[in-house]
Automatic annotation (TrEMBL):
GO molecular function: DNA binding
Name listed for the protein in its UniProt record: HTH cro/C1-type domain-containing protein
UniProt superkingdom: Bacteria
Residue span, HTH cro/C1-type domain: 12-65
PROSITE patterns, per database record: HTH_CROC1
A Pfam family recorded for this sequence: HTH_3
SMART domains: HTH_XRE
Native source species: Paludibacterium paludis
Length: 112
């Protein structure tokens, strides 16, 4: 077995655990079959760019998975998922969400 693949598999396992996903959920979110995903975690093979891209969209720290050097790991999985959803959202949805957030913020400040 390739040591580099094993290290990537271990980091992928850590990311999956951090998000609280099962192997089945992680496989589905990466667009791969269960046996393929299991081979990644076991270090038998390495994830392809397609799967990494899909995982990045839900907040998986793909830089960490591949290199061991994480990005901003201060964000929670929920925050990372929201950020990924934000990036994939159409402009109209972003504008509506920002309008809501700004109105909510003003209302909260008035109560203080």
């Amino acid at each position: 077995m390739n040591t580099r693949n094993q290290e990537i598999g271990l980091r992928l396992l850590r990311e999956r655990t951090r998000f609280g996903f099962t192997q089945t959920e992680m496989a589905k979110r990466g667009g791969v079959g269960m046996s393929t995903y299991c081979s990644y975690e076991k270090g038998e093979s390495m994830p392809k760019a397609d799967a990494l891209q899909l995982w990045a969209k839900i907040g998986v720290d793909v830089l960490y998975v591949i290199t061991g050097q994480g990005t901003d790991r201060t964000l929670t999985p929920d925050e990372m998922m929201l950020l990924g959803s934000w990036r994939d959202s159409p402009e109209e949805l972003r504008s509506a969400w920002l309008a809501f957030y700004r109105a909510y913020g003003k209302a909260v400040r008035k109560e203080d």
